[in-house]
Amino acid sequence: MFGRLILVLVLFAAVPAWAQWFKIPTPGIPRTADGRPNLTAPTPRSPDGKPILSGIWQMNGKYLQDIAADMKPGDVPYRPETEKLFNSRRNGAGGKNDPAARCIPGMPKLNALPYPFKILEAPGVVIMLFEGFTTFRQIFTDGRELPKDPNPAWFGYSVGKWEGDDFVVNTIGINESTWLDNAGRPHSDALHLIERFRRHDFGHMDIELTIDDPKAYTKPWTVKEDLRLIPDTELLEYVCNENNKDYEHLVGN
Amino acid sequence: MHAQWIHYPTAGIPRLADGKPNLSAPTPRTKDGKPDFSGVWEVEHNRPCPPGGCDDMWIPQEFLDIGWSLKGGLPYQPWAAEIVKRTKEDRSKDPNSHCLPTGMVRMYTTPLFRKMVQTPGLLIILTEREVTYRQIFTDGRPLPVDPQPSWAGYSSGKWEGDTLVVETSGFRDGLWLDASGSPLTETAKITERIRRVNFGKLEVEITVDDLKAYTKPWTIKLTQMLAPDTDLLDYYCIENEKDRPHLVGK
User: Fold this and answer.
1) What per-residue confidence (pLDDT) applies to A14?
2) CA B26: distance to chain centroid?
3) Which residues on chain B are in Cβ contact (under 8 Å) with A136?
4) Which of A73, A105, A185, B89 has the most CB atoms at less than 10 Å from its CB?
5) Cβ B23 vs Cβ B139: under 8 Å
6) Which residues pair with A206 in a beta bridge?
7) How far apart are CA B75 and CA B182, in angstroms?
8) B102: helix, coil or strand?
9) Alpha helix stretches (DSSP H) within chain A
10) B229: closest CA among B19, B6, B3, B2?
11) Given B100, B117, B131, which is nearest A122 (Cβ)?
12) Cα–Cα distance, B102 to B247 (Å, whole number)
């Protein structure tokens, strides 16, 4: 399905003059003399000195296809049964079993969609609005603890706190049927994700993502995903169920 | 009873001596003095329960018929009246039954929670149903001219005293406003006047101006009740959708 989504994105990019808010100046963006956004300007900060994460961001697309794109083969610490399951999903086998094929992407795939998302910081909660699937995550920053033995949720339960300039998000309770990436890397119900959001300058951010899942992997492993700010635009509408023609052609049970 | 945040005290709620939320306390306000709509909201329970008790999902009158409070009902154009008549026998065409977006009006009448989060320049509504959202810009931007038709429309709001007046246009054809099949067309303009009456109650006056489907503009009023000390769960229509093959229709 995602191959086609990328095609759609290319089509959008080829049609510059939509009359919605596809092109609208984002207030507060530092600009160079010619009026272009200065994406290497310093990280904006709130009055309390913390980096501001708000804005529209998009992740490097390679991590959706392969979350371990930057790792050496053999460095992902699979448990044998995890590797076996992963191998059984190679080359699209079982693609029908990926909930994303039925319009539910799961985490951490949601962050990695080839569409922008918007971060909004509100009192007690950070909200991520995703163009892809027109869905959202809530990351609570009101000091609550992660729930104990929660009912599995598609995007899990997330709490965040600042550690210096890093916004650190812990997530548990993710429905175990979701895949970590399109390649089909599995996870268990014990999955604990640790995301460290780190905004380097105005236009660039990393998410250092640790996958801590002792049932599926022998030790925690970490990848660093890079994102760029997408200035002067707004999220478009994306309704997966509207015209989902791929599902019946996917292989699986 | 799950161990997620379905029972978690909401910060900042005024409480009575016994610790219960005081829902008739004054309207909360943001730093700039405007009413703050932030909170988890649900439908008004304005429909008597059927014999044998209320369903798990308690639907309001407006879910079934958005014009139920209007004398003589909605001023349908003949083709729209025909859809409503047909829907009495055949509900299979309802976009809801196909897990498609509810649109902004049914978002308010769905018997699942929604959460408003008010930030400077933007009011967002997060919904349990479909784990989706609506954005209402309050940064003064004008509505787009001839936009790409959409399920959500394009919404821009401004304050008139303590009322947020939101204009929305840019819909696609095919949205329904209720389970009766009251249609909305791409020529529609919708105006909402949103007011937080007190801590526990939100009033939304909705004017639908869609002369392709209705002979004149009409206005209804919806009430939303605060759902304190809880938060949204995730509800995906498609997750275990078993009804569609059993629906009657052609």
Assistant:
1) 37
2) 23
3) 126, 131-133
4) A105
5) no
6) A198, A226
7) 10
8) coil
9) 2-14, 62-65, 80-88
10) B6
11) B117
12) 18
Do residues B157 and B137 lie in contact, with contact meaning Cβ atoms separated by under 8 Å? Answer: yes
Does residue A211 register a pLDDT over 80?
Answer: yes
Q: What are B222's two structure tokens?
A: 């919806």
Q: Which of A19, A136, A239 sits opposite B100 (nearest CB)?
A: A239
pLDDT of residue A32: 94
CA distance B250 to B248: 7
In chain A, residues with a C-beta closer than 8 Å to the C-beta of B117 are: 120, 122, 125, 127
Determine, for residues B150 and A20 on separate chains, whether the beta-carbon distance falls below 8 Å: yes
Average model confidence (pLDDT) across chain B: 92
- The verdict on A28 touching B (C-beta cutoff 8 Å) is no
CB B194 within 8 A of CB B208: no
B63's CB contacts (< 8 A; 6+ apart) are B43, B106, B109, B110, B111, B178, B179
Residue A247, pLDDT score: 62
pLDDT in tens, A58-80: 999 999 999 999 999 899 999 99
Cα distance between residue B175 and residue B212, in whole Å: 13
Residues of chain B with pLDDT > 70: what percent? 94
B146 has a chain A CB within 8 A of its CB: yes
Residue B169 has pLDDT above 60, yes or no: yes
Model pTM score = 0.90
d(CA B234, CA A51): 30
User: Rounded to whole angstroms, what are the CA distances from A202 to A56, A57, A68?
Assistant: 11, 11, 26
Domain limits, chain B: 39-229
Put simply, whether A151 touches B (Cβ < 8 Å) is yes
Considering the four listed CATH numbers 3.40.50.2000, 3.40.605.10, 1.10.10.10, 2.40.128.20, the one that applies to the domain covering A2-249 is 2.40.128.20
CA of residue A23 relative to chain centroid, distance: 23
What is the SS3 assignment for B114? strand
Q: If you average pLDDT over residues A2-28, what whole number do you get?
A: 55
A53's tokens: 């994460």
CB-CB contact of A158 with B234 (8 Å): no
pLDDT value at residue A17? 38
| Per-residue pLDDT at A115 | 94
> Token pair of B118, please?
């008010």
Q: Give B 61-80 residues with CB within 8 A of chain A.
A: none
Question: Closest to A241 (Cβ–Cβ): which among B11, B100, B121?
Answer: B100
Cβ contacts from A onto B, under 8 A: 100
Distance CA A60, CA A238 (A): 19
Q: Which of A101-110, A180-189, B45-54 has the highest mean pLDDT?
A: A180-189
Q: What would the mean pLDDT of A172-198 be, rounded to a whole number?
A: 96
Distances in whole angstroms, Cα of residue B128 to Cα of each of B36, B41, B119, B131: 21, 11, 20, 5
